[in-house]
Write a structure and sequence with these properties.
single chain, alpha/beta, Rossmann fold, six-stranded parallel sheet, 7 helices, about 35% helix
């Protein structure tokens, strides 16, 4: 059962842990589908504070939430939630509950996840953390999804290299890369990459700082 379905059935129960006039801080706003499920159960919420690294996307998503919940104060905070965040003073002075739905925490390395949880715990006024985490999936199911026969994931990964060529003056020869999905038993998940098919160093970005050249095994990874 996906987190969104679970949340729709548990939203009222979770809302009981959020005090009136508190601030709900969402780490990574995404499509806001899960956000709305919880916001619908919090009519007296003090403020909704979406956090996202993309300022333009954050502004657009925040405006949509503000339009849908006209009585709710929406305070977008641009930033990388894996780093220290700076909140407006009025938010710092409120009780806060962190909201990290989906299964994004599973994409972090163990030490990165621990650091994130510790950082949120250190916030002044923090009163709770609503955290979504994925269950362990069957290896065959995941391999079928991320190494799909239709080549959707492969095309997605190679498109990242194509964008580097177009936007960062990189010189990736896409014909010399192939999609690779590897099951990681220890982490119960997959690592995805575009693998160099030939032995010659072929990666170069011209207008990056610093510039880099890739070696045989330095293929881009999308874990």
């Amino acid at each position: 059962m996906c987190f969104g379905v679970q949340l729709s059935g548990q939203a009222n129960r979770l809302a009981a842990f959020v005090s009136k006039r508190a601030a709900l801080v969402e780490l990574g706003i995404g499509a806001s589908v899960k956000s709305r499920l919880l916001l619908n159960a919090l009519p007296r919420l003090g403020a909704y504070v979406p956090v996202d690294i993309s300022e333009s996307f954050l502004a657009s998503a925040g405006a949509q939430i503000a339009d849908a919940y006209c009585r709710l104060e929406v305070v977008p905070v641009p930033g990388d939630f894996t780093e220290c965040l700076s909140f407006p003073r009025r938010i710092e002075e409120m009780e806060r509950v962190a909201f990290f739905p989906g299964s994004t925490v599973g994409n972090l390395k163990d030490d990165e996840a621990a650091q994130l949880l510790a950082r949120v715990r250190s916030w002044h006024g923090i009163r709770g953390f609503i955290l979504g985490a994925d269950l362990v999936k069957d290896e065959g199911l995941l391999l079928a999804a991320y190494d799909d026969a239709q080549g959707v994931t492969a095309a997605f990964n190679l498109n990242l290299l194509a964008r580097l060529n177009g936007e960062a003056d990189a010189e990736f020869d896409l014909d010399r890369f192939a999609h690779r999905a590897v099951w990681n038993a220890r982490r119960s998940g997959l690592s995805r990459s575009s693998e160099n098919l030939q032995s010659a160093p072929i990666l170069r970005v011209i207008h990056a700082a610093p510039c880099f050249r890739g070696k045989v095994d330095d293929y881009p990874r999308f874990s």
